[in-house]
Structure formats: structure tokens, C-alpha cells
Amino acid sequence: MTSHNRKSGGVNDAPEPESAYTKIAYDPLDTRHYGAVSMPVYQNSLFAFESYAQFEQAIQDENGQFHVYSRGNNPTVEYLERKLAELEGGERAKCFGSGMAAISAAVLSVVGQGDHILCSNQAYGPAREFMGNYLKRFGVETTFVDGSSLEAWKAEARPNTKLLYLESPTSLQFELQDLAAVGAFARSIGAVTIIDNTWATPVYQQPLRLGIDLVVHSITKYISGHSDCVGGVVIGPNRLMESLIRSEYMLLGGIMTAQTAATVMRGLRTLPLRMERHQSSGLKVARHLSGRPYVRQVNHPGLPEHPQHELALRQMSGFGSLFSIQSDEPLDKLKEWATRLRYFKIGVSWGGFESLVTVHRLPVRSGEMRNFVRFFVGLENPDDLIRDLDDAWASLQDE
Ligand SMILES: Cc1ncc(COP(=O)(O)O)c(C=O)c1O
């Protein structure tokens, strides 16, 4: 060992880091790679061995400490997985080629023929489609519930309910579920809970610490943070992750590549910093919109008028910058407003550097259809974004 890399072991080891900033930035010195401060990209499909005995030993523990084949365990991907597990407070993480690959693998790892799923009725659309329609052909039934009501979860549970699927906050109407309460109820009936934690990120919400079993993320959003990657992750305890890795991960094969993992890791380094900025800018823009005459309601859990603001403060330590407004203005006018915005681009996804806008017609609690505009507040100056919103709206009144 050379003098510059002495910190890799022994008395000089840094203490267990606590803050997300430190967890993300700090690594013990890695002497396997000449002290390189970022993990090299292992662009290889397979790993070779000096002896047949070593090969056989590695095959026995392919998803443990050995590397055999990159569909199973690639060092660059594994490095990202360790970081994400640490951030969420989970024992194990596994990265996937997309958020949906992570969600479908996690769900399939829990349910089988004849089982029943309870799913929040505002969860991400393709996740609902997967559980509600696709899984029907394998004899799995799904009931969609008002996730904000603990009573609704309880009322719809059946003896064969194996999974409660949450997403909190939801990503169109920003409704919360009480994670500790739903988690405790699931445990009482012997069911597993999965939550989509994409909105809050592990920086602002750690559901495993509140009693949820498995966390999934679309890495495509804040975690990668630059609109240049598609990926997903499942994080949880070894007791659930081991079978998920052996079956849904290895057999369905929806892996993340080493190149993507390295790009995600580069984005992850600034996640807490970006989240601080997203939080403050998102709240500023949301507060501004809450005073506008064309806005019936702002759906942002960080605003005191959000009906679940208290719960939000209890289970999250900060807020994402994706929120929506409900408006009584005609849908066409809202779409024209979106078209006239300069800094908000029209497009799906979110979590990158750039602000985005989409217009939706959605059912509300009463069953009535209402008009919504969803904003993602990026890293621009929030005052420029507010001026953009005001100017574009004013230009519609001039005609
Ligand atoms: C809340 C949420 N979960 C999951 C997904 C799916 O992620 P991916 O597009 O990476 O498959 C998305 C994508 O928009 C999302 O918004």
C-alpha cells in the first residue's frame, strides 16, 4: 500500500457517515483501482477465473461477493446498488433497466397464482395496468383503493391478500398514504408492502424505516437527475431481496448496464444538493400559483393547505418539486398556456434539470372529472419560471 492510500483500512477508517450528503460523497479509499475516486466502468459481459475450483466457488455465490456474469453482478452496477441501499437504509438493492422493470420484478417476487393485491388507486398508470390487467392472466387479482384512507385498505383486504402497493405522494394529484399505519396493517395480515418512493427520493423519505418492506424507484427521475438515463431499483431486506435476485432479476433479465450505472452515479453525487434547490424552487412556484384566480387548488404536500400536510411533515423531511394545480379553466386554454410557456417544456417524465408541464383531465374524489396542470420545477431561477407562467397566462387574456 502506498502512503497516499492509507485510509483504506484500520484506525484511519472514517466513522459511519450520517447525512445523505456524506453517504453519497464519501467512500473509503479503493486500492483495487489505483485509488480512483469514482468506480471504473466494467464494460465486460463475463469474468474469468484462474482455476476451475475458483470458478465453481464463484458460481455458488454469484450474487454475493463474486462476479461471474454481468447479467447477475457487475461491479459498477453493484457499487451504485450499495450506495442506494445505504441511502434508503436497506440491506440490499438491485438496479434494473427501468423503473417499470423494477416495479414489475418487485411485484412478481411477492405474488403468485390465486393471490390478491391491494393497490393505491392513484399509483403510476403503467404500474396499475401491470397489476390490474396484465397479472389477471396469471390468476392474480387487484383491488384499487383510496390510499389516503387506512379504513379503505382494511375494508378491501381478503384472506389471500399478499401485497399492498403504495406510491406516496402520488405523481398527478399528490395524495399521501400513511406509511407507518399501512405498513403495520399489512404486517398484521401477513402481507408485504411495496412503495414507489420516486417523488421524495431517499433524501426526503425512507419508507423502510417506517415499516414498509420494499422500496422501488424510477432512477430515471431525480436519482439520475439529468434526463439522460432510464433505470430503476428495488431496495429491501435480504429476506425478500434474495429470492427476487435469484428469480425475477436473474430470470427476467431486465438489468442496468455498467455505463448507465456510472452515469447514474455521476448524477447521484449531487442528489441532496439538487433536492434542496428543487424543494425551495418548487415551493416558491407552488405558493405563487396558489394565489392566482385561475387556480382552484394547488396539490403540493409542502403547502399548509394540502389536506395531508401534517402527515407529510411526519413522514417526509422535505419535498420534491413535481406538483399540480386543479383549474376550472377549459382544457384547451390550459394546453395553450402550456404551449406558450418558454421555460417549461411539454413532455413526460421529470426529475431532470429542466422544467416541464403536462395537462390532464382526471377524476377527483367525488368521481367528477376535473382539469389539472402538472408542473415539474427544474433548476432554473424560480423567479424566471414565475414570470414565464404569469406572462404566458396574461398573453391568453389579451386575445
Ligand atoms: C412515479 C413513477 N414511478 C415509476 C415510473 C416508471 O419509471 P420508468 O419510466 O423509469 O420505467 C415513473 C415514470 O414516469 C413514475 O413517474
From TrEMBL:
InterPro entries membership: Cys/Met-Metab_PyrdxlP-dep_enz, Cys_met_metab_PP, PyrdxlP-dep_Trfase, PyrdxlP-dep_Trfase_major, PyrdxlP-dep_Trfase_small
PROSITE patterns registered for this protein in UniProt: CYS_MET_METAB_PP
Source organism: Paenibacillus cisolokensis
PANTHER family, alphabetized: CYSTATHIONINE GAMMA-LYASE, TRANS-SULFURATION ENZYME FAMILY MEMBER
UniProt superkingdom: Bacteria
Cofactor: pyridoxal 5'-phosphate
CDD domains membership: CGS_like
Keyword entries, A-Z: Pyridoxal phosphate
SUPFAM superfamilies per UniProt: PLP-dependent transferases
One family name in Pfam for this protein: Cys_Met_Meta_PP
Protein name as annotated: Cystathionine beta-lyase
